[in-house]
Structures are given as structure tokens and as C-alpha cells.
Design brief:
The chain is an alpha+beta fold. The chain is 36% helix and 19% strand.
């Protein structure tokens, strides 16, 4: 079995200038948890997930900051102020840019499973020889297709 047998070909992507607000709309409208970030030619430049958005938008708690010369209290952030201020931030500021793992459509299914498992990723971009994103493969895709394959084989044996 190869990645091409399990991957989603109809992939949603974003570009680095997409705002956090636009990304939230994309994720919610399509009921997905993350997308590859691509340049104008479709080349992978990053990954961004709903977790990245939540971490970015989470308000900071108040804390006492002290050093040798002075001490002050940093105020807690209000969620409305945070949202108003951060929603137009380009996702380039919050996306993962380094150590991005990907697979090709010809890679063994087992390679995708190992990468998803080892790195605790939810999904992997599928890249063609030209370096362009042509799909994604997620843990859910693997589970769904394994279930379908196992059920079909068991049904054939009965």
C-alpha cells in the first residue's frame, strides 16, 4: 500500500499572508484542523493548525516581573482585546516553518504511519517531485481506510 491509496487529493491550503481570521474561517467552514501553507507556486513553506491558532490567541495571565532596578505587574490580557488585536495577523507569524515532515504519493503507507506516530502529527502534506503540495494524509484517513480494508477482508473470509 502506498500513500496515494490513503491521501486526500482535494486539499485546502493557505498562503503566508492569509490572516488568522481568514484561517479560522477556512478551518471552520471545511471542518478541518489544519492546512499546509504554500507559496504562489504551490510549494510547501509551512504548516498551521487549530492548535497554533489557539496558542497564539490565548490571553496572557498577569504576572509580577522583577529585576534589580524595578518591579512591576504585567496586566492580564482581556480576550476581546487580544482577538481584536491579533485577528489580522498573517499566519506567517504563527505557522510551523522548520522540521516539516512530508511524504510523496509513492511512499509506503508504513512510512506515513511512522511519521505520524513518532512526531505526534495530525496530518502530513503529500508533495510531488516538483515540491508542490498535492494532498494530505491524516491519522483519521489512515484509521478510516484501515477499518474499511479490515472490514472488507473479514467479510470476504466469512
Amino acid at each position: 500500500m502506498e500513500v496515494r491509496d490513503f491521501m486526500i487529493y482535494d486539499v485546502y491550503t493557505a498562503n503566508p499572508s492569509t490572516t488568522v481570521k481568514e484561517l479560522i474561517s477556512l478551518l471552520e467552514t471545511n471542518r478541518i484542523g489544519g492546512v499546509p501553507v504554500v507559496d504562489d507556486k504551490g510549494n510547501l513553506v509551512g504548516m498551521v493548525s487549530d492548535g497554533d491558532v489557539v496558542r497564539f490567541l490565548a490571553p496572557k495571565e498577569s504576572k509580577v516581573i522583577a529585576n534589580y532596578y524595578m518591579s512591576y505587574v504585567a496586566e492580564a490580557e482581556n480576550i476581546e482585546d487580544v482577538l481584536r488585536c491579533k485577528m489580522n495577523t498573517p499566519i506567517e507569524k504563527i505557522m510551523v516553518k522548520h522540521n516539516i515532515r512530508s511524504v510523496s504519493p509513492n511512499d509506503d503507507f508504513e512510512k506515513a504511519m511512522r511519521l505520524l506516530s513518532k512526531h505526534h502529527f495530525k496530518k502530513l502534506p503529500v508533495i510531488n517531485r516538483a515540491g508542490r503540495v498535492i494532498g494530505v494524509i491524516s491519522r483519521g484517513d489512515i484509521i478510516h481506510n484501515l477499518s474499511k480494508t479490515i472490514v472488507e477482508k473479514e467479510t470476504e473470509l466469512v
